[in-house]
Amino acid sequence: MRGTDQSVLIAGAGPTGMATALALHARGVPAAILEADSADRDRSGSRAIYVHGSTLRTLERNHPGLGTDLVEEGLVWPTRRTCWRGKEVFSRTYDDPGGDGKFPHFTSVPQVRTEAYMHEALDEAGVEVHWDAGVERVESREDGVHVETADGREWETPYLVGADGGGSTVRSEVGAEFEGDQSENSFIIADVDEVEDEDDRLPLERLFHYDDPRVGGRNVMLVPFTGGWRLDIQCIEGDDPDELCTEETMREFTGAVMGEQYADSVSWVSSYKFLQVMADRFIDERRRVLLAGEAAHLLAPFGARGMNSCVADADEAASAIAVAYRARTDAVARDEVELYAARREKAAEFNLEAAGQALEYLQGDNPATVLRKEAAASLADYFEPAGEYLDDTPYGPHDSPPIVSTGNY
Ligand SMILES: Cc1cc2nc3c(=O)[nH]c(=O)nc-3n(C[C@H](O)[C@H](O)[C@H](O)COP(=O)(O)OP(=O)(O)OC[C@H]3O[C@@H](n4cnc5c(N)ncnc54)[C@H](O)[C@@H]3O)c2cc1C
Predict the structure, then answer these.
(1) So what's the pLDDT on residue 202?
(2) Could you identify the atom of ligand 1 that is nearest to the CA of residue 136?
(3) Using CA atoms, how far apart are residues 391 and 81, in angstroms rounded to an integer?
(4) Measured from the CA of 189, which atom of ligand 1 is nearest?
(5) Which of 32, 93, 111, 180 could disulfide-link to 47, CB 3.0 to 4.6 Å?
(6) Which pLDDT belongs to residue 4?
């Protein structure tokens, strides 16, 4: 019998690490988190605002009440709308939020609030987060993993989950490497606070505006979430993203796109080139370390496959570890961990391809894509599917990866 009562350790208290800890706890496996930051850290920026129904259901299954809390906190925008060079080409309003009755198709909530609910859930479950305990060294052995943290402590664990984000130390400690590339365009991403006066507020709709003349012909996306709006502006040739991120320029952009009442409400702004990469392997040689979430893959955010796929990784990592943890033979334990890698590497490849298609479409380098967009825009007044194509395509295909036991990502 391989049995042990040691806690499984997780590096990182982001959404992936917290979702993994909750999923392990739900399966009766003791877990603890080692986090590099201090408990009073500031996690700014709305980041993953689109929480998909399947993610809500996974979180609810692993910690009853967590999914419903997020539904209560979040909002479901009823309208999706698209404009082309100043003219509306598609608009559709839904009179119900979709989904299965308990969980809507999605909810829109800033990541900082999702993380706050996850922290509460960890407290309720009695899962400990060790702050200021960044993982520095990882040594995997036949019978477990030896971990050293920045606070000078040493730990032994049967399994380690590397959920320590894009710059993962765990990934480099096990000798895995990111492979892939980076978007050509930069994107400006800003959070804009909702205004006080209800009469001044924009209607709750997700808007995509191609070549918006109000901001020099740049693509603009506007998405509401609880308490604010996400404004994404795609840079064009010759743009200096740092210049566009200044307070003055953002004031102008926000006033032009959202109305003067929002011009002073930008609360956070940053510029990005998106990486499209995944680790060359998701597990170590001894089948004791599992990479999950952004430690394993980074995706462009179009299609919202980021955090949603992180939660799917977390759930499947916990499932594999729960079996491996109690397995009577090493061979069964190794098999489970290998299956995790096989499934989630396939899912990451699929998600990368889907996000890549969205990115390629938005960057518009391909003459056939440019032509298709122009043709759709000219037909949209008479032929609704053309407008719907323009509305839908910036987010990539909607299909789910193969071999996914839970969720859509
Ligand atoms: C601008 C922006 C917009 C986004 N929009 C979306 C969206 O619309 N939809 C979506 O689904 N996703 C979106 N994302 C992605 C989403 O934010 C990430 O997918 C998600 O945060 C990844 O979670 P994670 O837990 O894997 O990593 P992180 O959130 O990076 O968490 C990693 C954690 O590990 C800790 N850590 C780091 N090093 C160590 C170490 N050595 N030891 C211990 N702990 C360590 C970090 O402090 C952190 O707490 C967006 C991201 C950005 C930046």
Answers:
(1) 97
(2) 41
(3) 7
(4) 1
(5) 111
(6) 64
For the chain, give every domain's residue range.
Answer: 8-74+109-182+275-361, 187-272
Measured in Å, residue 200 CA sits from the centre of ligand 1 at: 33
Do the first three CATH levels of 8-74+109-182+275-361 and 187-272 match, i.e. the same topology? no
Summarize pLDDT for 358-372 with one digit per residue, the tens: 988 988 778 999 999
Half-sphere CA count of 143, side-chain side, radius 13 A: 6
Residue given tokens 């999706």 in the structure block: 80
Give the C-alpha separation, 266 to 194, whole Å.
10
The pLDDT assigned to 1 comes to 43
Architecture of the domain whose range is 187-272 = 2-Layer Sandwich (3.30)
Give the pLDDT confidence score for residue 50 in this predicted structure.
Answer: 95
Mutate to test the pocket of ligand 1, among 111, 148, 178 (most ligand atoms within 8 A of CB): 111
Above 60 in pLDDT, residue 304? yes
Contacts (Cβ under 8 Å, ≥6 apart) of 321: 8, 24, 29, 159, 161, 290, 336, 337
Distance CA 158, CA 178 (A): 25
Predicted pLDDT of residue 268: 95
Q: Please say if the pLDDT value at position 108 is more than 50.
A: yes
User: Who's near 257: CB < 8 A, 6+ residues apart?
Assistant: 209, 212, 214, 215, 220, 222, 231
Q: Which homologous superfamily does the CATH classification assign to the domain defined by 8-74+109-182+275-361? A: FAD/NAD(P)-binding domain (3.50.50.60)
Element spanning 261, H or E? none
> What pLDDT is attached to residue 72?
96
Q: 91: how many CB neighbours lie within 10 A of its CB? A: 14
pLDDT 10s digits, 38-66: 999 998 888 999 999 999 999 999 999 99
